[in-house]
Amino acid sequence: MINFDNCAIGQTWQGGNFTLIEKNIVEFAITWDPQPFHADPVAAKDSYYGGITAPSAYLFCIASKLFNDTNDYAGIGAMKHEFEIPNPARAGDTLSFTLTCIEKRLSKSKKDRGIVIFELKLITQKNEVVLIQNSTIMLYREKS
Q1: pLDDT tens-place string over residues 77-136
Q2: How far apart are the C-alpha atoms of 101 and 107, rounded to whole Å?
Q3: How far apart are the C-alpha atoms of 1 and 123, rounded to whole Å?
Q4: Considering the entire predicted model, what is its pTM?
Q5: Count of beta carbons in the 10 Å neighbourhood of residue 54
Q6: Which of 86, 100, 105, 127 has an alpha carbon 20 to 30 Å from 53's alpha carbon atom?
Q7: How wide is the angle at C-alpha 98 spanned by C-alphas 96 and 101, nearest 5°?
Q8: What is the rounded distance in angstroms from the CA atom of residue 105 to the CA atom of residue 137?
Q9: Distance (Å, rounded) from C-alpha 94 to C-alpha 112?
Q10: Which CATH superfamily is 12-140 part of?
Q11: Of 67, 132, 137, which is closest to residue 104 (Cα–Cα)?
Q12: Measuring CA to CA, how many Å separate 81 from each of 10, 26, 45, 84, 125?
């Protein structure tokens, strides 16, 4: 179980993989982000991207799933998420997951918890980063 006390700055975890399937991207996009380059394969071919790309909300969902599959966390809750999408994620890409503890501090008001900032990355099989997510998470401390 990863908690505040056994999470060290610079520590990295490798998570699972997720392959993007065009049908699933389109189904998600039709409901949640129906821009043509996400939801319409024909229109997407004529777009700037030259094909279907995954919506940012879909990438966040994938990141959340892979985060939760990586390990057990003594998490209380997420306090803040910041995103950067430096490259498009395309149908057929297999995304790998890395998670790094980049900052941490004890809670100022509760002695049994601390605040950790994780940097999460989704990276394609071509080593292109398609999502960088900094998440501020409140974690319980080890029970004494």
Answers
A1: 899 999 999 999 999 999 999 999 999 999 999 999 999 999 999 999 999 999 999 999
A2: 16
A3: 25
A4: 0.91
A5: 27
A6: 100
A7: 170
A8: 11
A9: 38
A10: Hotdog Thioesterase (3.10.129.10)
A11: 137
A12: 19, 25, 31, 10, 25
